[in-house]
Design a protein that fits this description.
Layout lengths: L2 H7 L4 H14 L3 E10 L5 E9 L6 E6 L7 H16 L9 E7 L3 H6 L28 H8 L11 H12 L1 H9 L18 H13 L5 E14 L2 E5 L5 H11 L3 E3 L14 H8 L4 E10 L3 H17 L4 H5 L2 H10 L4 H24 L2
Parallel strand pairs: 3-4, 3-5, 5-8, 6-7
Antiparallel strand pairs: 1-2, 2-4, 6-8
Helix pairs in contact: 2-3, 3-14, 6-7, 11-13
Length: 369
């Protein structure tokens, strides 16, 4: 694929990405749903989760592909979904019998539009889907120890030494413990990184409400949730829960290959989280036979990812800049670069593996049909 072809799939902002998605969905004769949120974008444009469905009226099996749960990660996620719709419209994908495909574009449309990873409440929406009855409270045991490093309550300081201080903390705490502490999710510090929220927020509520309308007939479903920022450059890790044991993990590797990794900080690039979208969905519909996969593509080194997230959150919370100046800030633009590299090599890698995983999921559904 050449650069000009990438241009047709990748977009420079949320509005263009949404329009490309809608156009591709129309060409694929998809049934569309628009879940509009109450917040507006930087040009006062409406923001929505747009959902394309292709398949029978009452499917027994479903492939769900989601993008943009982490705002700016919607740029590459949108491209993979547009590519998928193009493949459907060109008849290069065949659906197994009684199977539908549901493609949800921009689960966090506010973060996508405003170039943030979080939503309008500063919440990481992949920490916001707590199971029913679980309190939005608590934080990892060691989070207070890292809070001063991660969340300085000033915009800028002349001598920050973040990288050196980070290396010292990692040395003292251990890399895997530090990784788990930073990433797990916390519910006590609304202006800090990895805030999971004080309640189930609007975008997750709308998304779960939509699923409630369509899951009645579903017996088996595969969810692929697309993400970037974790792992080696352009290489995808397929992250799955390790709670079901070694036999389940072995079965998944047989069906999806050796990229399958458990959400275990001691076993790979991943970590356990609270309030994850996939576990939140499966907890609400336990009667469905779920296969839950987070497809995570690497971009830059972990410390650089945290440094960019920290700088952007610091600017947003403590600079005093109005929203539009925040939107045009270097910190927001850097966040896009970290989570959606402009490299043609990287784009080719994620499109290739994005398509391959979708094909594997359809084959998996077909084998159990």
């Amino acid at each position: 694929m050449r650069g000009s072809e990438y241009h047709e799939l990748f977009s420079s902002d949320y509005v263009i990405a949404r329009q490309k998605f809608l156009t591709a969905a129309e060409a694929a004769s998809a049934e569309m749903s628009c879940l509009q949120i109450s917040e507006l974008g930087p040009s006062e444009e409406p923001l929505s989760i747009d959902i394309a469905y292709i398949g029978p009226k009452s499917p027994k099996q479903l492939l769900i592909h989601t993008s943009g749960l982490h705002g700016v990660e919607g740029f590459p996620g949108s491209a993979v979904q547009i590519s998928l719709l193009n493949r459907i419209s060109s008849d290069t994908i065949t659906l197994p019998d009684k199977t539908g495909i549901l493609i949800a574009h921009a689960i966090n449309p506010w973060g996508f539009a405003w170039l943030r990873r979080v939503n309008e409440n500063n919440a990481d929406l992949n920490r916001n889907f707590l199971p029913p009855g679980e309190a939005y409270a608590g934080e990892p045991v060691n989070y207070a120890e890292l809070n001063g490093l991660l969340n300085p309550e000033t915009h800028l300081t002349p001598f920050d030494f973040f990288r050196a201080r980070s290396m010292l903390k990692i040395f003292k705490m251990g890399f895997n413990v530090a990784k788990q502490t930073v990433a797990e999710g916390q519910y006590e510090r609304p202006k800090a990184m990895q805030f999971g929220g004080a309640e189930l927020y609007e975008s997750p509520r709308l998304w779960l409400g939509h699923l409630n309308k369509i899951l009645d007939s579903i017996e088996r479903a595969v969810i692929i949730d697309f993400h970037t920022g974790l792992g080696p450059f352009g290489v995808d890790s397929l992250l799955v829960s390790d709670e079901e044991g070694d036999a389940a993990l072995t079965s998944l590797k047989q069906r999806y290959g050796e990229r399958i990794q458990p959400l275990d900080p001691d076993a790979g690039v991943a970590y356990r989280i609270r309030g994850g979208m996939l576990s939140g969905i499966s907890a609400r519909w336990p009667e469905v036979d779920w296969t839950l996969i987070t497809q995570e593509f690497g971009t830059v080194k972990p410390v650089q990812v945290i440094k960019s997230l920290r700088a952007e959150n610091r600017m947003t919370q403590w600079s005093g800049l109005p929203p539009l100046k925040q939107f045009h800030s270097n910190e927001r633009r850097q966040l896009v670069k970290v989570f959606s590299p402009s490299s043609d090599e990287w784009r080719g890698m994620i499109l290739s593996r994005g398509e391959a995983l979708i094909d594997d999921a359809l084959s998996d559904l077909d084998s159990k049909n």
